[in-house]
Amino acid sequence: MNPSVFFRSSSVCISLFLIAISVDASMGAEPIRVEVSRDTWISAFPSEQAGNNGGGYRLKLKGIQEFFLIDFDPLPLRGKTVARAELLVRGEGDETLDRVTVSTVTSDWVEGDGSNYAVNTDGASFLFRSGQQRWHADDNGDVTSVSLGNGGSAWCFGDASPRDGDDWQRIPIDPAIIQARINGDCFGFLVMDDLGSEYNRSGDKFEYRLMPNRFLASREKNRSQAPYFRFWFVDEESDAVEDTNQKDGQTIESPKRFDKSVTASLHALLSSATSGERNAASSPELLNLDFQPIDNRECYLARGETVSFVIPTSPDKVSLSTSDELEVSLFALPQVGKHFDPAVPIDLWEQTKWKLGKQSEKVFTCVDVYAGKTIPAGKHSVSIRIDGADTSLELNIWDFVMPDRLRFIPQMNCYGLPENEIAYFQLCHEHRTTLNRLRYGWTGKVNSEAVPKIRGDGSWDWTAWDQHFGPLLDGSAFAGSRRGAIPIEAFYLPLNENWPMDHEKHFRGGYWIENAYDDAYWTEFRVATRRFCEHLHEKNYDETLFEFYLNNKVYFKQQRGGLWSGSSAAWVFDEPVNTQDFWALRRFGMEFWKAAEGFKTPQLGYRVDISRPQWQRDLLDGVSNVEVVNGSMRDYGQRVMDRANRYGNRVYMYGSANELGAPNSTNVAWCVETWLRGGDGVVPWQTIGQKSSWQTPDPLSVIYPSDFGPIASLRLKSFREGQQLVEYLEHYRESLGDVNAEQIGGLLLNELQLNGETQQRNEADAGSVVFDPSAGQRLRVLRYRLGKLLDQQAINKNDDRGIDFPRQGLSAKLKRIEPISLQ
Questions:
Q1: pTM score of the predicted model
Q2: Beta-ladder partners of 435
């Protein structure tokens, strides 16, 4: 790396501390003890992120929450070449170190003299390298932006030695890490505990230990207890040692510059879309999905597009008529609590056997209007009679087409469906979303329909499996729909840590995946993966992304009565926390791609759901190709998208749909914000309601179950609005030429004020995204201005390309990462 791109303070290299060298040590034969010149313990815990502990007598390691910075004076060692390196630390208390990371830090920092997480000091903290100076200008700017593989940094990890009789442990360090400091390419080191949380197991009894505190003596203690480095040097002097572990893939291309015509187009769009102009003509009889009066600007739609609106009266008092080119559908909107949400098709609502929502205090009417793909551009109208009074809605058809294949995917995630599940997939297809059901549970037990029958001779019978899933995967389930026979966009494979393998049969214990299972476990996993690939390839199911995804978490065992058998996971696979979890995911991904080697189809995804991208490092780079990231994408989106662009990943943002009573345009804003940040879709983590959802407001009931089939919510319709608006943006992006969504997003996000905020009840909660109340109106203005511009361009082709599939297989840029061993 070139350190000149990072800030250098006047205290880059201080020489106030002496290197203690054994008198009888010979170069290259005996280690040299090198004293610590500065150290400070910092914390990522929300209330402690600005705190400094540089003057404390202890250091602390606690998984991803607390860690320390440490350094030595490199000047006396300039020109020497490191052959071997260790950091020695003395433990305090009962907790010992297991595997530990040492990373270079590529921005200078001040030790400080604070204690007890002192703020307003000049000392370093998680957020600041000194005082109120951020570590880096980009991507949240905390210490992780200049360490752990980011900002030109390098890292290594290795298993510490057991404690000796005096409580000392040795931590191995890659010599290249130390060499970087000697050569002036970094400013000390970040040290992390990779184990984090632990557990105790006795038979089926399980006790989880959430990131215990691991205390160590700091340099502020006397020399006999302070940490120190120990280096072995080669005999000849050298300018540098090549860092073979971390340099690949660190170069990030500079953003493409817009030409003047593109810049002018964006500024023209922004000045129009943010002006706040409104058409004075509006009617309280017709409301948008935010229950605000609509105006003429909203009465525009493209060919192949559906718009929805609400009439605040019961459907028995409403009738509509229109031309044949427009398809109109009516729905009854009963209340759930005080909120109008489930949209019951009017023909079902009027049947005497339908009971749900009939006791509602009020019932409104929802209307969907669909413009056929061959409808002439120009003015059309819908005649509406409301309680005996006639009115009309003037519709203007724009001269461009909504594509049938989705270029942005709102993926409705779920874990269970009623027996008539095909209707749920059809409902989502109609609403320009895709439904994806995970078909195994906490113990890894797979639903019977999700796997082929295994015959007595070990062969697999796919007959029932194809009958069940074939219509979804070849598109025949949707043959009569407006979008046509387009297969579902995503499908979870049943593969997991306990299928087809028996986890308990093969698990040998331990926290580190390389030693946890016998070879037979991985062989069985690869055989099953390859059988799926062979069958899907043979059936030509090549338009769906088949996702291998590990959902389970080791701490589910604690939530299941403290029983080891409560979950088959020995790590936190979904929303990984500590290095041990990311490291395990890496191994599963590498085994998956090894099994799938040689297959160009089916399209495969190794999907990981990430809530802490700041701790991901490069452990999954070139391994995962589908990353589903929570609201932290707003803070760390640059590194997420840099990785996606470098390795050909698909990226989604996950969370929850809006709460009932919150603006339904929240889901529209979520879709647009995600696209502007470079994402390919959104994933509300649970979308299927329960019977109780008809009486009690349930933010997870994007789709309401009933004995007569699935019922869409207004929130599902708002996801359709969001998807359609992103298609407008896709059309616009293509009209600008060779421009990506992130480049447009850099200008539009702030102007439209679409910086959503994720509100969580606790750390485990996926959270609901919240935008300011006026975001919906700004998006409606944006839609109008985009549509008007596209109408002038008359984009009449029905672009059938759809979203790009992610990279297949392990990346050619994949780096070799192995633990460093003590010698």
A1: 0.91
A2: 412
